Amino acid sequence: MAFALATVSAEPVEAACDGPYQFNVKELDAELYRRLFLSLQSELERFFNIEFSAFCLDEEEMGAYYDVQTNEVTIGIEFFIEQASPPGNINGAIAILAHEAAHSFQTRHGLLDMLKEQNPHRVKCIELHADFLAGGFMGWRSQSFDISEKNIAKIFFNLGDGDSLNDRHHHGLGAERYLSFLQGFRTQNVDEITLSSLGIAYVSQTNCDS
Q1: Per-domain residue ranges for the chain?
Q2: Average pLDDT rounded to a whole number, residues 42-55
Q3: Which residues of 7-26 are buried (b: 16+ CB within 10 A; e: fewer)?
Q4: What is the pTM of this model?
Q5: According to the lineage, what is the superkingdom (predicted)?
């Protein structure tokens, strides 16, 4: 809980994260967490060959998201703590941020329309492709850190949606998200473009209408 109580530095940073409860990770006064987030931001940018406008923390948000308009990744403080618990499970929270970073990659390379072709009213294939890319990032990261692929995949299973056919925001069933992440994790030693192409081939086999 120390993170939730972290204060914000008075040092000025570039304008970003301008939501009412948001602040840039660069503003964190707690050096350990500031270094953690900035290091993670650098890793994600290097792996996906992208650059964010900012990494934002939000005191009210109960999830994480990528803003296409501002090119910012935002995660709720309490949500981050929840996903990083128990101690030692921080890779679960990192994988969720990798999923949001994957949306930046998709946007940069114009993949959103392609991934919606099966059903233009659903985002399911976009989300499963992002799960695949997040798995690829965590697989790459596992070469340097001790990471349990199945433990993280279970987080994506738990983030899965129900079987409502009428929800255009459906992100995929738990089992679909689990398998997409796992398949990406096991696709290692490829560049980000190849990883993405393999991910598109994988999710194209998924019925995005169900």
Answers
A1: 22-203
A2: 94
A3: eebeeeeeebbeeeebbbbb
A4: 0.85
A5: Bacteria
